[in-house]
Amino acid sequence: MVGEEQYYEPPSRPLRLLRWFCADHFLDEVEGDLWELYQEEVEQYGEARARRRFYTLSIRYLRPYFFDRNHLSFQSLYTPDMIRHFFKLALRQLRRQRFYALINISGFALGLAACLLIGLFLRHELSYDNFLSKSNDLYRITVAYNVGGRTGHTAVTSTPLGPRMQEDIPEVVRAARIAPSMYDAGNNQIRRATELENRYESGFTYADSLFLEMFDFPLVMGERSQQLREPRTMLLTKRKAKLLFGAENPIGQQIIFNNNEERAYTITGVLADLPSNTHFQFDYLLSMSSSRSSQQDNWGFSNFVTYAELIPGTDPELLTAKLVEMIKERNEEYASMIAAGNQIDPILQPIRDVHLRSVGVSGFWQHGNYQYIYLFGGVALFILLLACINFVNLATARSSLRALETGMRRVLGSLRQQLVVQFLLESVLLSALALLLALGIAVVGLPYFNELVGRELQLPWTEPGWYALILGGVLVLGILVGAYPAVVLSGFEPLKVLKGYLTSGRSANRFRSQLVVFQFTIAIVLVAGTLVVREQLHFLQDQQLGFDKEQLMIVEGTHILEQPQAFRQQLQQLPSVHKVSMGGYVPVEGYFRNGSGAWRTGADNEENQLSLEKWYVDHEYVGTLDMELVAGRDFSRDMATDSTGMILNESAVKELGLEDPVGARVSSYTYMDQQTGELYYEDYTVIGVVKDFHFESLRTDIQGISLVLGGNTVNTLVRLNTDQVERSIQDVKMVWAELAPGQPFRYKFLDEQYQRMYAFEQRAGSIMSTLTGLGIFVACLGLFALATFMAQQRRHEVGVRKVLGASTKDIVFLLTKRFVLLVVLAIVLATPIAWWFAKDWLSDFAYRIELRWPVFALAGGLALILSVATMSFQALRAAWTNPVDTIRRGE
Amino acid sequence: MKGTHLGEFEEIILLAVAALQEDAYGLAIKREIEEQANRRVTISAVHAAANRLEDKGYLKAEFGEKSARRGGKRKKVYRVSLEGQYALRAAHELRQRMWRRISPSTFQIDLSW
Which of A403, A175, A208 minimizes the C-alpha distance to A295? Predict the structure, then answer.
């Protein structure tokens, strides 16, 4: 091929592809003609275009006719006999290497089981409100505000918002409000009209008549279009119907609330029990028209959650602008507040986002948190990854053992790809066994898991997709973990292997080390994260709240008593009771709250008023809760002027800008005339200031609070002064039974209620702990197997060293040194990563721990100790073996 | 019938090989068809058809010299085998028979060429 002419070199990639798939006997002709054509085309079209054409022309050969049958066809290479042979080999391999197979399978099974269960949980979390047939067009209206520097986001909206939206905005097909906490909503003592014994029930919610047309919760009894129309009609769920009426037909029956026989409700329908994946939480729906104030055009009355159904395809963003215009037009106060520079933005939140994306939105029901979705999903996948790494590490480390087999097979005519298929089959088989075991673990572990996450999940055995997932999972996992070892193993040069030149490659060794570092980095991040979560939870529990939460009993529903004052006095006489206060406001989530406009009397413009919590309490409140007065005095029965006295907390003093609080005058709204809608306010004199106290979750900053005299007898707060709590409960109960025969006695303890505010974090903490434990276990499992193998590999060396005088210590050091270094490297890598994650998580809390180094030192130390302990077992065994045994046998 | 049936493209390939005589390799066949039939033909289609015809026994092939212009690959030069010649003739005769059955009055164009 001596040519004076210069030839153009066609691109090599398509040629390589061609050589791969095209049968050899075509190659001379095809390649040659393509070359020649390329020369012509370069001259004709230029190189760039010719190259492009070369690509497309080569690809055109991708048709069965040109394929290399010997190369690609399954028929000739993989006869049923061959496949059976592979299976037999794989099973034999598993049986012979029982120990390693066990480690691989159990690691995989644990990782897979964690993934299955967490996946089940995530699927449930992500499916909230999906089942509603209009879920794409339903929205919840929330309001984000920044008024006078106070920011917030709430799902609680005003009375007219819903009705006005539907009237004024054409894109809104329907709007419905619910009210889960006013008047007869929330909790009640109820009874059938035919009975006298009351029953305490919760989950009462007012709902507009359109509610059931927007949200198609199935009805078991009753006509859908007739529900929630008339005042004082109600629906209840099937399970409550069973509870109250047994086998009787509940339709048309009457229910009496809190012994108020004049306002009985008539049952018009029975709902199917709510599915677990809806953000709604109710058992009783009361017709909205039963409440007079819900029918008034009063923008100042905010007790509703408003839902809207839009015309399909409406852009919610655009609608928001219309909504703002509508509210401006209808509500002068809103318009003037906006004009004064405040921000109050309505937001349309898709109904399916309510469950997971309501973090920081105040409302009535507890929701999930999408951050934890990512967290748990990520951690479960990481555990599976750890198990995969175990497999790859073991397979490549032990490759030298199988090198002979590989070499022999190649010499006997096996193709490399057949070897790859054989090894892949082994790993797929292994992953299939692991998946079977994982399913077993999942079935057994599901009840515990349900308790852990607080759900009632079930494995979806009836769904075909589930089986597809299992089969697909086995294949994908098997191929994923088998690919690298298969390529390494099948790549040995047969001659070298058979002559015994095999040295386990340096690069494979380094790769293994990297994987071990990676594994332990993950494990240490998990441990450090878990430690931080636990520390933060402890911190929240021990936080100084500004009042004493221990030994404070809350007796609920005391407004049902005919003589509440007698109850109080009798309790006060009990030796175990220190102080008693009555009222609805308790400084823990779940009790009365009352945001009300307040301003310095005369000084401030009404438009710049700030929203201050205004709690109606009695004379004993401050003393019972053991709040600390920093200035002024408590309410006193001897001072008649205290009826217009006010006690502020420090934050409120700051927010109102009072320099000398005691004696200052503050105005605040008191009530609104139901007929005229006019707002009344009162001027108060500040008589005292209490230290700031927490009354919501510590996720939020302390807000300003004002206490004034008044209030009701909904709850009775009892401060006990004894350690004999059980006795005291009995004492209080006896007083109750005497004064309220036949009424259920309900009580709670403030510290327990307080813990409940962090139930979600507690839960997340225990899930994290469990997953972390699993992760560490899987990582150590791999390390254990690797150490076992290494000790076995070096048993001759160990024997010789011992004969030459090495001590046990020397041997252990020799065998563990490398891994210890790897774990130390992992600690160095993991610490900043864990630091960053922990900081991010903590930033959600207004009150949080400082991140300090001992946490990370502890995590790293734990990993180090665990890994050394894991390896020492094998190292010691090697060191204690009689050298004669290993050397003489000389296998 | 089925054994001797020629597809339209196969027939054209055979004819092109016959017409080219000496140097009937893939690229030359492609060029010949493109010139005569005035249609674009991809080289892969020519290769597939020619090799199929070889499998059927209508074409015979020999490898020529390696050349640098071809990236050091040999040419595969085709010629029409005896069976191929019979098949071509059969196809031609079939057409002629059919043509003769067409009465000139049914066609609007001039049939006398």
Answer: A208
How far apart, in Å, are the Cα atoms of A450 and each of A418, A524, A576, A813?
Answer: 45, 27, 40, 45
| Beta-sheet pairing, A172-179 with A186-192 | unpaired
Q: Is B45 on the interface with A (CB under 8 A)?
A: yes
Can you spell out the DSSP letters for A35-54?
Answer: HHHHHHHHHHH-HHHHHHHH
Is residue B21 in some structural domain? Answer: yes
Provide the shortest C-alpha distance from residue B42 to chain A (in Å). 7
The pLDDT of A515-544, averaged and rounded, is 86
Provide the residue range defining the domain that includes B42: 8-95
One-letter-per-residue 3-state SS of chain B:
CHHHCCCHHHHHHHHHHHHHHHHCEHHHHHHHHHHHHCCCCCHHHHHHHHHHHHHHCCEEEEEEEEEHHHCCEEEEEEEECHHHHHHHHHHHHHHHHHHHCCCHHHCCCCCCC
Residues 6+ apart with CB under 8 A from A716: A554, A555, A558, A564, A567, A568, A571, A580, A581, A582
**Is B101 within the bounds of a domain?**
no
In whole angstroms, what is the distance from residue A482 CA to residue A489 CA?
Answer: 10
Q: Residues 68..97 of B with a Cβ closer than 8 Å to A: which?
A: 68-76
ipTM of the complex: 0.89
Closest CA to A183 of A258, A305, A291, A289: A291
In a domain, B108, yes or no: no
> CA nearest A685: which of A626, A735, A645?
A645
List A190's β-bridge partners, or say none.
Answer: A199, A257
**Residue that the structure tokens 């037009």 belong to:** A329
B112 CA to chain A: closest CA distance, Å? Answer: 40
Cβ within 8 Å, pair B76-A28:
yes
pLDDT of residue A500: 67
3-state SS, one letter per residue, for A510-537? HHHHHHHHHHHHHHHHHHHHHHHHHHHH
Distances (CA, A) of A347 to A122, A139, A151, A156, A580: 26, 9, 15, 12, 43
Residue A57's Cβ-side half-sphere holds a number of Cα atoms within 13 Å equal to: 26
What's the rounded Cα separation, in Å, for the pair A114 and A770?
Answer: 10
Question: What total of structural domains would you count in chain B?
Answer: 1
Residue B113 binned pLDDT confidence (cut-offs 50, 70, 90): low
Strands A679-690 vs A645-649: parallel, antiparallel or unpaired: parallel
* Single-letter residue type at A159: T
pLDDT band per the 50, 70, 90 thresholds, residue A507? low
Residues 56-85 of A with CB under 8 A from B: 57, 60-61, 63, 65-66
pLDDT for position A3: 46
Helices and strands: H and E segment counts in chain A: 28, 24
Handedness of CA A488, A492, A498, A503 (dihedral sign): negative
DSSP-derived letter for residue A575 is T
Residues of A in contact with B51 (CB under 8 A): 26, 65
Closest CA to A354 of A591, A138, A144, A152: A138
Identify whether B60 is part of a domain: yes
Give alpha helix (H) positions in A224-315. 238-245
Q: Provide CB contacts within 8 A for A117, sequence distance 6+.
A: A380, A442, A445, A446, A449, A457
For chain A, give the mean pLDDT.
85
The 3-state DSSP class for residue A744 equals coil
Question: Nearest C-alpha of chain A: how many angstroms from B1?
Answer: 24
Q: Could you tell me how far CA A628 lies from the centroid of its own chain?
A: 38
- CATH number where B22 lies: 1.10.10.10
